[in-house]
Amino acid sequence: xxxxxxxxxKVPLQPEDVSPxxxxxxxxxxxxxxxxxxxxxxxxxxxxxLELGTGIGVITSLIGKIxxxxxxxxxxxxxxxxxxxxxxxxxNLGNVTLQQGxxxxxxxxxxxxxxxxxxxxxxxxxxxxxYEDVISIASTNIDExxxxxxINVLVMDIEGAERDLIRGAQLPGVQRxxxxxxxxxxxxxxxxDITQALATKGYAYDPRGSRGACVLFAKDDGPREYEPxxxxxx
Length: 234
Prior knowledge:
About 35% of the residues lie in helices and about 25% in strands. It is α/β, with parallel strands linked by helices. It has a single domain, classed as Vaccinia Virus protein VP39 (Rossmann fold). It has a 7-stranded mixed beta sheet with strand order 5-4-3-9-10-12-11, with helices on both faces. The longest helix is centred in the C-terminal third of the chain and has 18 residues, at about 185-200. One of its GO terms (molecular function) is methyltransferase activity. Keywords: Methyltransferase, Transferase.
């Protein structure tokens, strides 16, 4: 079995485990490169992190390597979750708990999840493109999970589902929300819905931890840690 190193993470996968485009991104180091760089602005030492949309576990493993951090990670697609477990285990991360499933706002209900060849395109949106399989998955209430596990940081890349989740969830005790926006799915109106919902809950857009579609919203304030190029351009 091939063992790639991606952003310092061991990735014991074979080309047939993923689509050609994802394998190429893994091989050349571009896989989730922006997230890999900017997630460290959102997650700090000793944080308790909930990650939604684990994928193959590269970002999960990066978070798990931060000293003192505890991570609870969710991936909806069973086959992708199996790959993520392989990656997490290869990096000896006993502080990461991986679950296959969906967290959503409100009472538990059943969602239809559309699995696609490019796993990063799999989502609950039927219109996102051709899919290979449809999986029915019962959700768990996200606010109850956050409260039970004393989560203070939420990280998510859930292919457009963030819009409804953020509007409906209360996020008790969460100080920072780091997410990838998907404006190609919901346009600027969706961006507006997300930012307004987070503002109502007391979060502010934090430019210190944001770059393009990877954005950080925070309640807590801290040192003004900007990237050097941002400071030079100011």
